[in-house]
Write a structure and sequence with these properties.
five-stranded parallel beta sheet, globular, 424 residues, 15 helices, 44% helix, alpha/beta, binds 5-phosphoarabinonic acid
Length: 424
Amino acid sequence: MIKLDLKDAKLNEDLSLWQEKVSKAHRDLHEKTGVGNDFVGWVKWPLDYDKSEFERILQLKKRMEGKYDTVLVCGIGGSYLGARAAIEMIKGLYPDDGIEVIFVGNTFSHTYISQVLEHIRNKEVVLNVISKSGTTTETSVSFRIFKHFMEEKYGAEAKDRIYATTDKARGTLKELADKEGYEQFVIPDDIGGRYSVFTAVGLLPLALANVDIEALMKGSADAYRELNTDSLEENPAYRYAVARRILDKQGYTAEYFVTYHLQLTMIAEWWKQLFGESEGKDGKGILPTSACFTTDLHSLGQFIQEGKKTEFETILYIDEMEKDLVFPEDRDDLDHMNYLAGKKLSWVSQMAFEGTLSAHSEDGGNPNIVIHLKDNSAYSFGYMIYFFFLACGMTCYLLDINPFNQPGVEVYKKKMFKLLGKPE
Ligand code: PA5
């Protein structure tokens, strides 16, 4: 399902030298003996997930079928990025099934929130608020505004259109949902936000958005089984994890996550959060950044080719993206493009990928890691996400970092709360 190509990675160390460390970290992840071990519930979740809650999600989707055309998803960070990345990767940017999914709760932008309110005025809306802590300010601000919108629009029926995904027992959102009588879904204690897309955090919005969540979970379970080996030779997630560490030691301070389709830019955003929040602490880590080619070859391309050599590239290349078209012949050929007539656009894109890889790697001297994924199906999404979870846990353990906390995020909150006059 995933093929990792390290032939252009320019590693100056043999991967096998890391086998012992990898085996220890593998045990720590699977046997819960490493740092942050309260938060490794995601490791076996693809097999252990709550089947009755899963069924409840499918039932809710069935019950609401035909009653909504707009899904508002209110959450931030790990409470929204995975679902958004999945919807865009699997359904594209302009799906034709009549369901629009709008993400709120991820910004204080008054302009954005006002525009969403205007945009949905005449739509049939359901609202899923998602917060593990139940107290995240961006989410709470938006939720109050959209809750009022729902109550004004639907009156008593609003409570049947609002669903809360939060802690099973604690938190302000939990209390509010109990009082209002919203249907609730649980974020397990031992799964942190950015590792939660296979829980109701991702599954409920995805089901409402017509994504095949059964195929998605099957992809994650197959990834669990196939990647449950400490052997570096057999485990591409661990080879990727080690390659990052070697490049880090070689002095590369940034990693570009590169995609070749505009509908994959949110995958890059999700990946940035996963690696950024997991690894960037104790003065360590590789800066996760991203680019979408060939679009960004017309902005960042110059820097990547000839600028300061501090970054490497990790390319997510999807071998069989759905929907293709043949470039048309033109009788007059006024644009001089007939040399491509009859070629598939997927072939043009592949040539761009191969040419760019050669330019950046051979001419530019940049290390390039290529991750080949079969296609953009729900199954492949599930498989790929688990691959990155595992790679991230491993690469952080190899750096002696706790991948499952984010203490630095609190600093801006404290300063902001003081300025907002939030009661202690
Ligand atoms: O990965 C994480 O833990 C964070 O990015 C959280 O998902 C994010 O801060 C939102 O938190 P919450 O779900 O508690 O509102």
